[in-house]
Amino acid sequence: MPPSAASDRTRDRTHALLVVCVLAAASLVIAFLGASPARVSATELMGDPRGPGDAAFIASHRGGGATAPENTLPAITAALAGGFGYVEVDVALTADGHPVLLHDRKVDRTTDGTGYLADLTLAEVQSLDAGSWFDPAYAGTRVPTLPEFLDVLAAAGGRAIVELKGTWDAAAVARAIDEIAARDLDRSIALASFDARTLALCAIESEVVSRLLILKHLPKDVVAAAEQAGVRGIVVSRKAVLARPEVVDEIHAAGGRIVVYTLNKDAQWDAVTALGVDGIVTDDPHLLSQWQVASADD
Hints:
The protein is α/β, with parallel strands linked by helices. Helices cover about 40% and strands about 15% of the residues.
């Protein structure tokens, strides 16, 4: 075996062991504190498992970036008003540990600022214009904080998939969960991440708030990976699902759900709908909704 492959396997095993240890710690904490609250089932979270041809729920990517600047309150408000299943947003941490809605590691693409978000304080981020790049009509739009987003979500009675960007520590996770609980959104939000350790920390803080594992590539045993991470389902790339279409049935048989990102064309929607995926993340939720209605009428 090449040294690099051996190193990768050792790193994967170490990572898996760390995740298992953190999840075990979560179980001990819950047992010590007493009976845990009722967990949100996959059905409550995302509905019954879809069959081939069934309409998937719609998640507005980055708040619905086709209609307003991504990850801003105008985009989120428009998506929630559209009545779609979920609004999907990205949340990352500033230099002083505040969670804000931003996708990229740098602020350059979606604001008038420059540099890495992790190097900027909340005050510096809030001074940026996050709307002019999209359209002059949105000049002065700010990068929202997680609490600001949660206030809008709670007022609308909506649901959200919140991607935690990067790796979060225990303190940051605890603060985010507290903000969610303070607005009684525990059963309305699914926290998603590529990082299993971040999801394990979420499990320690709340047995109610659901978790989703994001995967660009599918592991050999995807069900085992989902179970190890303690999640209700996976969010996965279209290419990975089309390469292994049997994964949809595998996840459903294990009681989970599968969401596919980020699809903006009818041919893409048709391909994954035919497989029975449960959710589709899209930049244009209105167009996808119209396509679903037209497809149902055919």
